[in-house]
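Lab meeting, item 3. Inverse folding demo.
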């Protein structure tokens, strides 16, 4: 049966820790849940739809009044959501778990609409960062060309040509 949160037992409501900006949209009580492909059945509990996720909250047993969160699935990550109609019961399958609830079609529509709203309001995904290519070092060989003007002078004693920067004639030693 579909129940608003105000009708959920306080012990169940106290089990739910909401994120900032998160609020409960609707809840459903289920008579049992069964993990598809296994023999595990659990007892009664609540399927809680928020504007960000779907929670499955189960009773801890007949002798305990406590509850605990069994599954916590973010809306964009739900990729298996379908209605099961069988001989014994109708149910809603969420990520491979069958929840026996009344009016599973309505529950599926609520969850689908919440997923669409979440995607509309979600910030756009960040573009994947491109890896920075490793630094490459380019070696450039430069040819250094030095141009020097050499001035030659003639020795006044012997007439030999020698560089201007030399103090004395290499031939006769005159200055």
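The presenter then showed the designed sequence:
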């Amino acid at each position: 049966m579909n129940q608003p949160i105000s009708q959920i037992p306080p012990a169940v409501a106290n089990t739910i820790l909401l994120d900032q900006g998160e609020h409960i949209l609707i809840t459903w009580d289920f008579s049992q849940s069964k993990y598809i492909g296994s023999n595990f059945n659990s007892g009664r509990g609540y399927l809680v739809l928020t504007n960000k996720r779907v929670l499955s909250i189960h009773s801890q047993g007949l002798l305990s009044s406590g509850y605990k969160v069994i599954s916590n699935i973010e809306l964009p990550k739900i990729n298996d959501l379908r209605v099961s109609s069988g001989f014994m019961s109708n149910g809603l399958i969420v990520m491979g778990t069958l929840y026996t609830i009344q009016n599973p079609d309505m529950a599926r529509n609520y969850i689908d609409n919440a997923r669409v709203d979440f995607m509309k309001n979600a910030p756009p995904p960040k573009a994947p960062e491109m890896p920075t290519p490793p630094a490459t070092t380019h070696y450039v060989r430069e040819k250094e060309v030095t141009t020097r003007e050499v001035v030659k002078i003639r020795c006044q004693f012997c007439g030999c040509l020698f560089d201007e920067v030399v103090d004395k004639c290499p031939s006769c030693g005159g200055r």
